[in-house]
Structure prediction request, 266 residues.
Amino acid sequence: MRWFADHIVLIVGILVLVYTFVPIAYIFALSFNQPSARSATAQLEGFTLSNWTSICEPEGLCESLQLSILVSITATILATVLGTLMAFALVRHSFRGRSASNLVIFLPMATPEVVMGSSLLAMFVSVGVDGLLGFVTLVIAHTLFCLSFVVVTVKARLAGMDTRLEQAAMDLYANEWQTFRLITLPLAMPGIVAAAMLAFSLSFDDFIVSNFTAGQSVTFPLYVYGSKLKEFPPQLFVVGSIMFLVSFVFVILGEVWRRRRAVAAR
Prediction:
């Protein structure tokens, strides 16, 4: 009992991790599944590698995946650039309406997605672009709801930075651009990268807002929903496995980079 009491936090943590990764492991298993019928798609029946070699075999799957990746990358770049600039303005400068701006930033995060999606659709219709719904409207919508998450993430990083390092650099005759490029930006980069990864994940995963603003275009989440209604190919589990592996690799690389920087700083 003493050992159990001393390790209760560790045990609970391991159980939570196991609970979290069971669905992911099931997705990996289903990516090698060979169902005999549509009704048995989510049941393990046989082992095959053909799902991994024929990802684009289901009609429209690769097209929807390509659209989602393009929209997510574009929205991530726009939201990261604009959100980082907004975060610097809110943290480093004082201006009239600063407190109100900090409050407004949280509103898109607290607004239900169905409200945001319907509002964006109504706006697009009112300005007369309802016939052009597609890539452009998806990028605009995704950038808008990702912007708040980027600002909040970068703000947290900037608030924890020691401004005395920048002052020391300028005392050593570095100009403002050199200080920003060599001191401020590297220190803020972990927060910017984390914000970009969060924005990409939110954009790629979005269904509700995309459902309102996609028009005739089909993103990957919309394709998954449509496949559930008619035919659910096992290649969808392959795409899910690949996305998880890519995310896992990025997390590992980020952790390795962080540890190397910590060792070099000693």
